[in-house]
Amino acid sequence: MSITSRERRNLFRLVLFLISGVLAAFALGISARAGESHILIIPPDDGYGYQECLAEKSPCGLIVADAWCEAHGLAASKSYGPADAASPSIDETRRADIRPGSFLVACGE
Q: Is 102 helix (H, G, I), strand (E, B) or coil?
């Protein structure tokens, strides 16, 4: 049983159509989430000594926040600071995870 050149072309077109459909769906999913941000909660007893940087909004705070986001596979940080100041902007389910003295880092997608 051999495949004719016409059948081969039709099969090739079908495969290209399916691949382009999957890629288009993937691209639309990414652009729909482009504006989202993820908020990471950094516990107060993490042990790395970053509290001074994040609390004072110093230049090292930006470095720590960006590194924390990148370590979680996200884009650079959008904002950071003590959780006490920003906790009203967090939903109820996440607010229960915040311990006193924690810090929040908002990361881009």
A: coil
Given a cut of 50, whether residue 34 has pLDDT beyond it is no
What DSSP character marks residue 34? T
d(CA 103, CA 39): 10
Query: Measuring CA to CA, how many Å separate 80 from each of 37, 58, 104?
Result: 12, 11, 6
Reduced to 3 states (helix: H, G, I; strand: E, B; else coil), residue 11 is: helix
Q: Report how far residue 92's alpha carbon sits from residue 36's, in angstroms, rounded to the nearest whole number.
A: 19
> What is the pTM assigned to this prediction?
0.57
Q: Are strands 77-82 and 37-42 parallel, antiparallel or unpaired?
A: unpaired
Per-residue pLDDT, 70 = 92
| Burial of 108 per CB tally in 10 Å (0-12, 13-18, 19+) | middle
